[in-house]
C-alpha cells in the first residue's frame, strides 16, 4: 500500500490543496472547525478510489481533484455528526470537534460541509454525478438511523448488520468509484461494475474496522478497544460470539451493553471468548470474502497501474492496522 | 390571509399528499419521526410561496406540488437540527422530536430528510433548481453557525443581525420563490425579482418573529415569551433596547444572557423598557420596511389573483400573531 500512496502522492496533494482552497466560508469559525477535522489524519481513501477508478478508465484530466475533495467533505460532514451521535471525545487520537467546540458547532459545521459539497457538485452540471452522490447521502443517513434503531439489540441478524454496513459505509465509497467511472467516460456496464467494486470494498472496510475493534494489539487495549460494545453497537465478531457462547456469557455481554460499561476485565474476557470461538477470524474471513468479490469485479478491466493499485487498496482493507 | 388559504386549499392539500407519500424510507423510525414534526402545524409558507410565484408567471402544471414538498422537507430538516442546537423541548406547543426520541435521532432524521430532498430535486434534472436549492442550503448552514458564533454577544450590530437573518431564514424562502419562477418559465430578470421578493419577505418574517418573542399577549407570557433571550440570541428589539437603556439595565440584560436565566419579573421589566424606548415598534417598523420592499418587487407583474395573494402573504408577515 505504501507504493500506492507513493505513486499517487502528487495527485493526493492536489486533493489536499482543494480541501483547503474550498474552505472559504465568510464565517471564520466554519473554516477553523472544518480544518481541524480535515487535518486529523484521514487516509483520503475515497478521493484515492475516485482517482484510481477514473484512471482505470483512461481518464487523464484534473476534475478528480475537486470531485475527490467534495466526496471527502461529505465524508467529513458525516464524521462530525457521528461524533455527536456517539458522544465521542477522541477521533484518531485527537480531541473531536464536539469536545473542543461543542455539539452545536459540530452539527452545524457538518451541515455546512455537506451543503457546500452539494453546491459545488451541482456546479459540475453532470446529472450522473448528482445522482450518484445524492443517492449515497440518502443511503448513509438511512444507515445511520438503522444503526441507532438496532443499537443495543443483540438479536440483530447478520443480514441486518450487513445492510447497515452497506448503507452507512459502502454507499459513499461506491459512489466515489462510480464518479471515477463517470468522469473516465466508462460505458454504463463498466460504471455499474465500478460501483459494485466500491460496495464490496466498502463492506470489507467496515467489517474489518468492526473486527479490529476487538483485535488486541498491546497498546490499543483499554480505552481504544471495545468502543463499539461501549456504544451498544452489535458488530459481526460480537454477533458471532453471541451465537456461540454460553448463556451465562451471553447474559454478561447483554448486561454490559445495557449499562454501557465495560471494565477491562470484561473486555479481556470477551476477546478471549472471541478467540476461543473463532469470532474474530470468522469476521475477518467474511471481510476477505468481500475483498475477493471486489477483486473479481476488476476482472473485466485491462491490466494497468491503476488497476493493480485498486487491487492493492482492496487487499489493504483487511491487512491494515486500524 | 384566510382567503388565500381558502383559495389555494386544494393545492396545499396536494402538497400534504406529497409530504406523506415521499416519506417512504425502509426504516420505519425515519417515517415516524419525520411524520411527527411534519404534522405539527407548520403553515407551509414555503410551498405556498413557490406555488404563487409559479402561478404569477402563468404556470398551470403540477410540478410545484412535489417541489413545494421538497422545500418543506429541507425546512423540516433544519427545524430538527435547530431544536437540538437550541435544546428545545417544545415546538408549536408539542414536544419536539429530540425530546421524544433523543438528539441522536433528531440529527440523523434531519440528515435523512435533507438528503432525501436533494435526491428527489436532482431527479428533476433542472440545473437552475439544483443551484437555487443547494445555494440556499449552504447559506442556511452558514447563517446558523453565524448565529451561534454571535450567541450571547450584546455588541452585535444591526447589520450583522440582518446578515444572520438573511442567511438562516430568507435564503430558503427566496429559493422557494425563485423555483416558482423557474418552473413558471420566468425570464431571468423576473426570476431575480421573485428571488429578491422572497428575500425581503423572508427577512420581514424573521424580524417580525423575533419581535413577537417580546410582544406580550396575555397567555403567552411566562414560558413562551422571551425564548430568544433565554437562548442568548440577540435580536432586533433587544438590540434597540441595549442601545437606548441605562447602563444599569444594560448590565442586568447582559447578566441574564450570560446566566441563561430569565425570571418572569426580569422579562416583564425588559418588555416594559422595550415599550418605553419604542424597541418593539422600531423592530416592527423595520419588518414593515422589508414588507414594503417585497410589495414593490411585485410591481412589474400584471394584476392577477396570485399576485394579490403574494401581496397578502407579504403583509401577513407583520400582521400575524406568532
Walk me through what this model shows:
With 322 residues, the first copy, chain A, is mainly α. Chain A has a single domain (2-319), classed as Farnesyl Diphosphate Synthase (Orthogonal Bundle), CATH 1.10.600. Chain A contains 16 helices and 2 strands. A two-stranded antiparallel ribbon of chain A has the order 1-2. In chain A, β1 (90-91) and β2 (94-95) form a beta hairpin. The two termini of chain A are 14 Å apart. The mean pLDDT of chain A is 93. The A-B interface holds A 25-27, 29-30, 81, 84-85, 103-105, 107-109, 111-112, 114-116, 118-119, 121-123, 125, 127, 130-131, 134-135, 137-138, 140-142, 144-146, 148-149 and B 25-27, 29-30, 81, 84-85, 103-105, 107-109, 111-112, 114-116, 118-119, 122-123, 125, 127, 130-131, 134-135, 137-138, 140-142, 144-146, 148-149.
Order of helices and strands of chain A: HHHHHEEHHHHHHHHHHH
Strand line-up of the largest beta sheet of chain A: 1-2
- The pLDDT mean of chain A sits at 93
- Reading off the top of the CATH hierarchy, the class of chain A is best stated as Mainly Alpha
Unreliable stretches of chain A: none
Q: Major sheet of chain A: size, sense and barrel closure?
A: 2 strands, antiparallel
Summarize the SSE layout with pairings.
Two copies of one chain form a homodimer.
Chain A: H1 2-7, H2 9-21, H3 28-38, H4 45-56, H5 63-85, E1 90-91, E2 94-95, H6 97-101, H7 103-122, H8 127-149, H9 158-183, H10 188-212, H11 227-230, H12 236-244, H13 247-259, H14 264-277, H15 279-297, H16 305-319
Antiparallel strand pairs in A: 1-2
Amino acid at each position: 500500500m505504501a507504493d500506492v500512496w507513493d505513486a499517487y502522492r502528487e495527485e493526493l496533494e492536489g486533493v489536499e490543496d482543494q480541501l483547503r482552497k474550498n474552505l472559504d466560508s465568510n464565517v471564520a469559525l466554519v473554516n477553523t472547525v472544518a480544518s481541524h477535522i480535515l487535518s486529523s489524519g484521514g487516509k483520503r481513501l475515497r478521493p484515492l478510489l475516485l482517482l484510481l477508478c477514473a484512471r482505470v478508465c483512461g481518464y487523464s484530466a484534473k476534475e478528480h481533484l475537486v470531485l475527490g475533495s467534495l466526496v471527502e467533505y461529505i465524508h467529513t460532514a458525516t464524521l462530525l455528526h457521528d461524533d455527536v451521535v456517539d458522544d465521542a471525545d477522541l477521533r484518531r487520537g485527537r480531541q473531536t470537534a464536539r469536545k473542543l467546540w461543542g455539539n452545536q458547532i459540530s452539527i452545524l459545521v457538518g451541515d455546512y460541509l455537506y451543503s457546500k459539497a452539494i453546491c459545488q457538485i451541482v456546479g459540475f452540471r453532470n446529472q450522473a454525478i448528482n445522482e450518484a452522490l445524492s443517492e449515497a447521502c440518502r443511503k448513509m443517513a438511512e444507515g445511520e438511523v438503522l444503526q441507532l434503531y438496532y443499537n443495543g439489540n443483540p438479536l440483530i441478524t447478520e443480514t441486518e448488520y450487513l445492510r447497515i454496513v452497506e448503507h452507512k459505509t459502502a454507499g459513499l465509497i461506491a459512489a466515489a468509484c462510480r464518479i471515477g467511472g463517470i468522469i473516465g467516460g466508462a460505458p454504463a456496464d463498466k460504471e455499474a461494475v465500478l460501483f459494485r467494486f466500491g460496495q464490496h470494498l466498502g463492506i470489507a472496510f467496515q467489517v474489518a474496522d468492526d473486527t479490529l475493534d476487538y483485535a488486541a494489539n498491546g497498546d490499543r487495549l483499554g480505552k481504544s478497544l471495545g468502543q463499539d460494545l461501549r456504544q451498544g453497537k452489535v458488530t459481526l465478531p460480537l454477533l458471532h460470539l453471541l451465537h456461540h457462547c454460553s448463556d451465562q456469557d451471553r447474559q454478561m455481554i447483554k448486561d454490559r451493553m445495557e449499562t454501557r460499561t465495560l471494565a477491562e476485565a470484561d473486555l479481556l474476557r470477551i476477546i478471549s471468548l472471541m478467540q476461543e470461538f473463532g469470532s474474530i477470524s470468522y469476521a475477518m474471513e467474511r471481510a476477505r470474502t468481500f475483498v475477493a468479490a471486489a477483486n473479481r469485479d476488476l476482472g473485466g478491466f485491462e491490466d494497468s497501474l491503476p488497476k493493480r493499485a485498486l487491487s492493492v487498496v482492496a487487499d489493504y482493507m483487511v491487512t491494515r492496522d486500524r
